[in-house]
Design brief:
By secondary structure, this protein is mainly beta. It has 1 helix and 11 strands; from the N terminus they run E-E-E-E-E-E-E-E-E-H-E-E. Strands 2, 4, 5, 6, 9, 10 and 11 form a 7-stranded mixed sheet that branches. It has a 4-stranded antiparallel sheet with strand order 1-3-8-7, with no helix packed on it. The radius of gyration is 13 Å and the shape is globular. The relative contact order is 0.32.
Amino acid sequence: QVQVAESGGGLVQAGGSLRLSCVVSGRTPRDRAMGWFRQAPGKEREFVAGMERSGGQYYADSVKGRFTISRDSAGTVSLQMNSLKPDDTAVYYCAATHRIAYFASFDYLADQKSYSAWGQGTQVTVSS
């Protein structure tokens, strides 16, 4: 069993930055690939960024060049969000894959079915 918990959301003006954090715990937490997803009001939850255990990173086109996913030595996974836009307003979720994934494809990381542990979500609101 793996558990994840996000923090760091809030209200920010367009053009500003926020950093989300995700603490991972449980069985072999550091060997899982990790992903960030978001869900805006009235929309489906969508992939934002993913990181395979080996460190490879993948991003949705809508955030490429603005968002960065990382993992520190303690295993905490972060999402640095710069140049935020009102369209980035959503509840952001952190998730861990159900299998150990040292290497993973974009398609695997972008598929919500690849993940078995989800956080409760953190609200990010970007004002214009």
